[in-house]
Write a structure and sequence with these properties.
- The structure is a single chain.
- By secondary structure, the chain is α+β, with helices and mostly antiparallel strands.
- It has one domain: 2-Layer Sandwich (Alpha-Beta Plaits).
- 38% of the residues lie in helices and 31% in strands.
- It has a five-stranded mixed beta sheet with strand order 4-1-3-2-5, sandwiched between helices.
- A hairpin with a 2-residue loop joins β2 and β3.
- The structure holds flavin mononucleotide.
- Flavin mononucleotide (FMN) binds next to α1, β3 and α2.
């Protein structure tokens, strides 16, 4: 199984329609057996995708071609023997501070480096 983690930035000036991204992602990822986490903070996205390598690559290719964001940088690409994210989830920062605890729970089963990436990002101030 492949696990891929990237960061990106929402395109300037666009209101991000998270409900739309969430609905499409849930539908497609369920169909493709992809689990992971999309963490949204201000204009920044941090996403983990894991599952069958071909399916993950195909999803990433679609996501990378999405004009709603840009400057995608892959932070990590590793093969995993078991899923580290049991489900597919989105954690969006609503400014209340709860997202830090929410993300910590969602990455509980992930490798230390992956946990560190998400927990560090969750603790940042929105840019
Ligand atoms: C930040 C971000 C994360 C996304 N995550 C996913 C995802 O996990 N799975 C997915 O299928 N599409 C995701 N999308 C949407 C894709 O870019 C693309 O619009 C979608 O896969 C097209 O699906 P459709 O052909 O079923 O309409 C994401 C888009 C953005 C901007």
């Amino acid at each position: 199984m492949l696990q891929l983690i990237y960061v990106s930035t929402a395109r300037n000036g666009d209101a991000i329609d998270l409900d739309n991204i969430l609905a499409t992602s849930r539908r497609n990822n369920r169909r493709d057996g992809i689990t992971g986490l999309l963490h949204v903070k201000g204009r920044r996205f941090l996403q983990a995708l894991e599952g069958d390598a071909g399916k993950v690559e195909a999803a990433y290719a679609r996501i990378a071609g999405d004009p709603r964001h840009f400057a995608l940088v892959i932070l990590s690409r590793r093969s995993v023997t078991a899923r580290e994210f049991g489900d597919w989830a989105m954690a969006a920062d609503d400014g209340s501070g709860d997202v830090v605890a929410q993300v910590a729970t969602l990455v509980e089963g992930a490798a230390p480096s992956v946990r560190g990436t998400f927990e560090g990002f969750a603790g940042l101030r929105a840019a």
